[in-house]
Each structure stands twice: as C-alpha cells, then as structure tokens.
## 1
Amino acid sequence: MSALDLAQISDCLRRIRDQQCRRRVNIQDLPSPVLGHILSFCDPASRYNAAQASTCFSTALAEIEISNPASDINDNMLSLDGLPSDVLLTLFKYLDRPSLGSVAQVCSRFRDISYSDCLWIEASRKALASNQLDAASRARCQETLSARDKVRLGKAWIQGDTLESLVAVQNTKFMPRLQLEAKRLWVAWGNRIWCHPRLPDGGIAKTTSRMLRGHSDDVSKFVVSDGMVVSGGQDRSLCAWNANSGEFLFARRYCHGGEISAVDVTARGAVLITGSRDKNVLVWNIREDPDRDALLPVPVHRTCVEDRVWSVAANDMGLLAVGTAGTKGVPPLRLYDLASGTNVLDMGTELKNGAGMLDMAWLSSSTFLACGYDTFTRLWDTRCRTYVRSWEEPFDESVYCLATDKVNCLVTGTARHGRVRIWDMRSSGFLYMKHASPARRGQSSPVYSMAMDAANLYVALDQSLNHFGFSGQDHKRQRRRRF
C-alpha cells in the first residue's frame, strides 16, 4: 500500500467523522439542482449576494443559467396567467368592481377577460337609464352598448356626471316639443318642425337636414313614429310628413273645435289619436286614397271626455289613456277602448280639483306614468285601478313633462328655472337635479319637453335647446344657432 492510498483513506475517514458529528443538514449540503431551484425564486440582487457568499451558490446559479435561459427559469411554475380563460372568468366573478378594474390593468389578456359581458351582464340589467332592456328605448340609442359600458353609463346617471352644452337659441319665446330617434332629433319651434342630425358622441349637428311646414300657427304636439311625423297645432289642423324624405303626406284642417293639444300614433302607424281643448278625442284610421295615390286620415269615432284634453297615450293592447284638466269633478285620467270608444275606467277621482295630467308614458300593457299640475308624478296600474307609486316635486311646482327608459329611470321637467330632476323609480327620493341653461342669464323658463336615450338627455326651454351628455366625451362646443 502506497503513501497516496493511505492519505486518501485518512481523508475519507475524516469526512465520515465530520458528517456524523453534525446534528442537522446545512443548505450548502443540498445538491446543486435543488439549490438552483430555490435561488430561482429570488430577485437578481439576492442571487448576486448569494453567489458572493458561497461557492456552492455560485456553482448552482451557473448550472441553471447554462441549462435554462434567464427568461425560462419560471416556466415550470404555476402562475395565474397560465390558467385557461374559462377558469379565470370563474375566478373574476368573485371580484368587486374596483378589484376587477385593478386586474384589468395587469396585462392585455386580463383586460380582455375582465371586459367580458358575462362578468357585467347582471349589473347591466340593473343600470340606471342605460340598461337598454326596453325595445323602444333601445331603438332611440345610437348603438347597442356592451354590458360594461351600460354599467359605466348607469354610474354616470346616478352620480350626475354629465357635460352640458347649449345646442340652439331662439329670439322668440315658444313652447317647443322634442322627439328623438337613433340618428335624428326633431324639434318643433313655432309653426315649423326642424330635424337635427345626431353626431356619434350624442351631440347635435349645427345644421338641420330638413324643415317641415304645414301649420299656420304654433305646433302644440307632434309624434315621430313608424316613418311618419304627425303633428297637431293651435290652428286646429292635423298634418303628417314622411320622416325619411320630408314629403308632405296629408293635412286635415279644422278637425277640432279648438287647439289640438295631444297627438299619438299606434297600430304601427295605422291609427292616429288627437285630443283637443274642445273636450273631444278623435280616433283616425289611415287609409290609401286611390284617386290621388296618397294617404287619407278617416275619423272613426269621436269621444267627449267632458273636460279639456292635455295628453293622450295608447298602448299595444288597444287601451287609450286620456289626461284631462281634472276640473269640475271630471277624473284627471280616463281610459277608453280604442276600437269602440267606450269608457272602461276612470282613475284619479281621489285627487284634488285641477290635478290635470300634462304628460303620460306607458311602461307596460297595464302600467303607465303620468305627471301634471299637482306636483306629483305617479305610476298608475289599471289592475289596481289607482296609482301604486308616486314621486313629489319638493319645490311645489307643476311637472310639465317626463322622460323615462321604461325600466327604472324617471326624468321630470318642472315649471320654473329649467329645473330637471332625476329619479330612480326603485326609491322614493330623487337622486339630484340639474338646471338647463336659459338663452340669456337670469331668465326662468319651464321645461316644455325632454327626450333621452342611454347616454344623452335633451331639454327644451322656451328659447333654448340643451344637451346633457353622460358618456364623458367632451365634444366640440357648438355655436349658438338662431333660426
């Protein structure tokens, strides 16, 4: 046995004796692959310090850097972004809106998943004014919104986060009326009806696309429905035009003994209803005149409601609601069968004298909203034969007009200071109020008419037309247009 063999045996025995004396295993005794995996969880600064502290650490780091590129060290580790999209959708459903917004800022994949409609659809159905559940309200919108956009706009409606702009100004005081379509806003100033094209952000174009003439006196009420513009005026005339081409369709002069104060269209444009100060309601059928190749309104029946007529509204079930002045013991709301003209129900007999109904809107086949002189807006139910909800104007002012999404949002316009009040019909109190800007500072005007869609509210005062945008887009300030 040589001296070299004796030295190797002595060194081996010494190592065995040292291992037996140790009570626990040190991290430096771990294999290099295990050390490399542990160090892969450290940041670069910690790895550098470990390599300087011990040669075993530097050796382990050198091995993993050779076997794996720096970007692939964590490839075999479980991470959140490695989960399938359907699993992430299930996880994200448990997050509240602020947390979902934070997750959307992590990466583009998380943003796309967090913007998915399935995460927002339930909240979008409850969104104020922007839910687009009603077909007629949805048809007035410029686009079909995603579920997330509905929630965003609903929050803006609740908080009153809006931008106001003055669209048009008049030199003369009128009682303007509004009608809204997806691409057009119709405004009646005096004896003319103007058509304003709508801009993509909800604003109104400076120029008008057409102007409708046919009345010799101011237009009291008009309706845009089924491709027709039908109007009644103080000259006791009923006129109609084609909404797309502006072609004059027909006119019936002196069909009432007084001003035509209410107009409605039903049965897909085949039936017209007019109400007047002469206490009569006329139902018309639209027929084709073969001799002149034109449309001809033919009166079907005339009904006396025993008081001045302020508003009329027909539903899809053939029920006609008539709002009267409510004086001399006449009920403020009278319901008639549209086909026969017979009175089927009187409502509001318990209200005070003079509680006339100035504006109405059907929400369903059995419920409708009505507002008027007694400062209340009420939800009436024909099945209960009375009102089931009411919202009172706090400042004791008459409510001239209303607008609604027919689901949960109610907007009322009052008799003074251009005051517009926003209500959530699921609660009894109002959310907030806005004052539409008058044509000149210091003026006080009633709100004569309003129109709304999911992202916009249009308000007509005696000399100005105002736009409230809830989308957050600050479109260019439009110059005041004088007609």
## 2
Amino acid sequence: TTEGPGTTTGIPNNPECSNHSVLDYYRNVDQGSQDGEGKTLCDHVDFTSGNWWGPSPDWNGTGWYRFKGSGNMMPEKTPGYGHCATRNTGWVNGSHPTTPGQTVDVTICFDWDNANERDCWKSIGAKITHCN
C-alpha cells in the first residue's frame, strides 16, 4: 500500500522499499525525447542545465528510486534512442529480481542511436530491489 510520495508499507522491509525518490510519468518508454516543457532530461550527478536540457524535477542525485505512474520498472532491452524524455535512454542489461526483498546487481546501459550499434554506449552499475 502507498502512504504518500516515496513511502510504501508492507513487505519486504528493505530500507530502499520505504525510503526512495519517485520517478514520474515522463520516464515511460512511450514518452518521446522531451518532457512536457520541451526539455530533454539528463539525470547525472555533475550535469548542469541549459536552454533545452536539464535534470528532471524528480532527480535527487545518487540514491534509490522507484518508478510510479510511468510503468513499474526499467525495460530489460533498449526501447531505442529518444524515449523517456531523454535522448540516451537507459535500460537494464540484466534481469529484475523476482522475489520480494531480493536485490540484484545489474548494469544500466544508455542507448546512443537507433542503429543498434551503440545500444550500450555508456553504462553504470546499479542495484535493483523487488519491492511490493
């Protein structure tokens, strides 16, 4: 059950299941390369804003995030370049955990083009926890 933004009750009791930031509906793979204000989003710790790009309003830096209102998880294959209100769409190169409370280590890839040549142009390590 949900109590409020970023707070979920019930099992599992992993801290990240109740203490996380929420990613909004612009993260949906059906969303093009821009948000509702015509900006391309880039969520990066060292990123600065410009006229047509910037960090999304729900980006809070390094930490735990949960998808709500945008589907319930990152795709496990590239949706292609220019989705989720960004150009370099992120996707999980691996599998999501299947058991509540389970945490897995994955690689998040970022797609550079539509030609299937740079589907994992850049990548970072991440952890995913299966929360209810």
## 3
Amino acid sequence: MRKLRPGDKNRGPETLDYCPKPHSQLGQSWGADPGPLAPPLQRPLQNLLLLWTLLNCGLGGSAQGPGEWTPWGSWSRCSSSCGRGLSVRSRHCIWFPGEESCWGDTHEYRLCRLPDCPLGAIPFRDLQCALYNGHPVLGTQRTYQWVPFYGAPYQCDLYCLAEGHAFYHSFGRVLDGTPCSPGAQGLCVAGRCLSAGCDGLLGSDAHEDHCGRCGGANESCLLVQRVFRDSGAFAGYWNVTLIPEGARHIRVTHRSRNHLALLGGDGRYVLNGNWAVSPPGTYEAAGTRVVYTRAAGPEEKLHAAGPTSEDLLLQEPNPGIEFEFWLPRERYGPFQAQAQAQAQALGWSLRQQQPRQVEAQPPELPAAPATTVPRIPTPTPDACEPCPDTRGRAHRLLHYCGSDFVFRARVLSRLHQAQETRYEVRVQLIYKNRSPLRALEYVWAPGRCPCPRLDLHREYLLAAQRLISPDGTQDRLLLPHAGYARIWSPAEDSRVRLASRRCPV
C-alpha cells in the first residue's frame, strides 16, 4: 500500500485485500485443518472468520461494483500568509479485487483569500528562486543570484534568471499555490495552471448564471428586454426606464446625437446630467460599476454587472433605445405592474398577449334541396416525409446553448396556417429563458409538416428561439426545422440539466 501524491491521477487508489482468492482456494486458505499444533479454541474463531468472509465477500469470491470513497478530510491551512493561496483536502478509495475503481479525484484544491500583502512583500516565486542563491548549480562550483524569468513556455515550472548573465535555468515545478504569472488569476497546482470557479474550487468549471447563483440555470430571475420608442413630448430629459434594485447584467445601447443620462437613487446624476456631457469611463453607481462607452459615431453603450443596491433611472430624449437587465423573480412583479401602467405612455415594446382563441367557423348556409350528384373521390393529401434523425448529445447541446428558451410544455392544440404550424402549449417548467414566459404560449414551426412534429396532449422538452418581425409587430417563439423537441422523461430532464453546465459563457 502506497501513499498517493496530490494531483497524481494516473495512479490507482489504495487496495485493501480483505477477501480471499477465488472460491476454489477457499478450503485451502480459510477452511483447512489447522493441524495438530493448533490450540482447540482456534477452530471456532476460524469458523466465525469464514462466516464473515462469506457474508462480506460473497460466495463468488470477489465483490462486484465500484469502490467507495472515504469522507473528505479537513482543509489544510492556506499556502500563503497574505493575498491569494490554496488549501487542499484529500480522500481515499476503498475497493476490493475485482471491483471498479472510484470515480473522481483524490484531492480537491480550494482558493483561499487573505488580506492583501503589504507593500514591498517578496512574491512567492521570487522566494523560491532565492532559495538557490549562493548554491552551486549546473555541475560547477560557481554560484549565482536568481530572479524569476517569465519568458519560458511553461508557467508552472520554476524558471530563474541568473542576475548579470544571459541565461536562465529550470529548477522543476513551482510550489503549489504559486501564481501562474504576475497579475494572473490562475494558481499552479501539480504543474498545471488552474483557475477557480464560482464555487472556489481550482479547476472547477462552475460559473454564475445571470441571477448570480453559482452553477444555476437562470431559474431564480427573469430577463427584462425592451425598446424605448417614444420621442418625448417636451425638450430635455425623458424617463426611459427605472432599473430596480437587484438588477444584474444591465445593458443599454442606442444611436443618436443625444446622450444617455443616468440618475441615482439620491436624485443626483451619475452620467450626462445637468446639461453636461460626461467622458467615457467607469462610474460607481448603486453599489456596482457602470461602464460607459461612446464610439466615434453616434453609438453609446452602458453595461454593469450588478447587482444594484438601489434604483437607477435611465433618461434620454430619443427613441430606439434598447435596454435589458435580469431581475430576481420576486422583484419582477412590481416592475412589470409599473411597466404595463406606463407602456402606452412610454411606447415600450411588450410581447404580444397570446390568449387562447377559438377558430372562426364558416357561416352555415341554408339547406339546399337534396340532389343526387356523382361522388368524386377526394385526393388524399400527401403524407409528410420522415423527419431527419436529431438524436444525440451534440444536437442537444447545440440547441440548448443556441436557443433563447428551453422549457417543458404540454401540447394543447395544433393549427395549420398557410405555410406554418402553430402549437398552443402549457409551460410547466423553465430551464432557460431570455425573457419572461407565460403559462400559455404559442410555439410556431415552419411548414405544414414541421420537423419535429409534436403530438397532442403529450409533454415535450422544447428549445425555441425568439423571432421579432422587423417592424416590431410580431414577437414569436419559433421551433426551428430539425430543432430540439424531445418527449419529456426524467432521463431527458437530467441530460438537459447537464447540457446547461456545458454552454460557453
């Protein structure tokens, strides 16, 4: 039994050989006669040991199934005394011969943050190079003073430059917790440069969603997306929208000769207020940083990560301003009530309501006298061609990441209109949404024989795109041809949730 080194993933876990060899050797190894020299009390102990072996290892001789991890140990102390460092914890795999090994890593590394290092503190990599000062290297008795060298290809090897000389030398790997390069966010672990996810674990691919939840799928917030279309009834500042407290991922763009103005909750302007033009740059407002850019042309942009700690008011006297931000679900209701009350006055582009409709029936004609006419056989419509095969993980991932909406819905009705098919669906669970979804929605598919075809009264997982007409009069959910529409099942639900973690940010 050997000790695993941190980060050594190519080595197997520890083996605890509690069980005997195959059952053909059981009598020789465990049930054989102890011989005349064995004490009389040894036989009952052997029988008890044989019973324990059969119960724990099975009559087949070797237990089947994966091994089991021991609980994680405690986190170690931080590798640094100031600034950023790492902590490590480990676990061990317990498995028997014939079993599969444990899945996962034996060690986990966590980013630890301490107070900033004081001015003049020696960086960690400099200290490691300085350990070789005054010691002979390179097979000679000459000694050198060493400083870090950052021009070598491997960030996590300790390359040191001999002061006053034109050569550098590699002293192997840097110690774990060494920054990969000056100013970089990554830390070296077992010779690899790793960055921390939002869960604080190095090497993790966990990201915050638009709601600010680590590893979330935007379930706890909604996207507000509008276009301001009113030109204002007077000259001067015109209210565009209130950006409520708690808003995240705020983006505002427009093109005009006028300038965007931002008013803080205390009534003082953050940007372009009091008839003065502010320079592009980063501004502090409502507990977040607002980045204001203005190109050489008439285009202006605002964006802020959020969350905002108070309300902000966006002002501008021109139409055509596009803005969006994400709001926690509990804050969306009050904002929507205010937006609907002001929609007609402000000219916001809201998604059209889609109530359930009853299709108009042709008027009944008066009964005509019965006449005998020859029966003309009506041609049967051409059957729809088979849809292309859209199964597979790559297809699911492509449509999940590229769609505006992913949700579970039950099909209530289907209607063919010209060269389109309209489904009325009841939304039951939302996995991804770039704007709010109602309980009842219409989903449109191109053609009278759409692919994939949705059956009535069945539940599906759908990936839809938002399609807005150029004049802004139509706002639809579109199910693309050969898009993602799978019959809902617990297994497909798990696959979709896994796909949500693999989309690029």
## 4
Amino acid sequence: MSHGHVKINGGTEIDMDTFAGWEDRGIGLDVKRINTRLLITLDGYFTVSYNRKENVYVTLDEKMKGKVCGMMGDGDGDPDNDFKMIDQSSPSGLRVLQNPTKAEIDMFGDSWVKPGSCPSIQ
C-alpha cells in the first residue's frame, strides 16, 4: 500500500481515491469503500477494515472463532496465546511467545512471511 493505492497479492492495484466497490455474490465477497475506509467482507468468515493509513482491523464471524491461526491470533478470545510463531523445531510447528520482546515480535512477524512475498523488516 502506498499513496492511496492498495496492491492485492502483488497483482491487482486499487486506487482508493476512485474505487467504489466490487462484489462476487457467488462466493459472498464484498469489497467497498466507505468514506476513507476500505471494507472487505467474506460472508460467514471475516471482515477486514483498512483506514488508508496504517490501521487494519479484522473481525471474525462467530463460527470462525478458535478455528484460525496466523498473524492476527487464533480468535479464541485468549490474547495470551495469540503470538504463535511458526517454529519447525516444535512438535506442533508453532511456538507461543509469552510477553514477547520487540525483537521477538519482529521474529514473530517474519515467521509468517510467505517466502519471496515481501522484503525483510530488518
């Protein structure tokens, strides 16, 4: 994202100043701009709200709570287990960071990067 543009998966670029909306009723996907926010909804799964600056808010549908895993936690309502870092040396493939330091938070973020998708934060 930069200068009012959002790039989706390295491909389609949305100009937030002119984008009005898009939907695919077949899969229940709705993307719309409301004032300065971009709102993405996949019915029955989640809603993502982006404020064109740095804030992204994700709201899970009730049926998805506790059934997800990733950068935004697992949605089980327990914030103490949300920092699950990918760790191949762990039997589960994940390691929970308790009271993580800034360095551990950076490592946590890097652990979820899809190889080749973005530069390192270092």
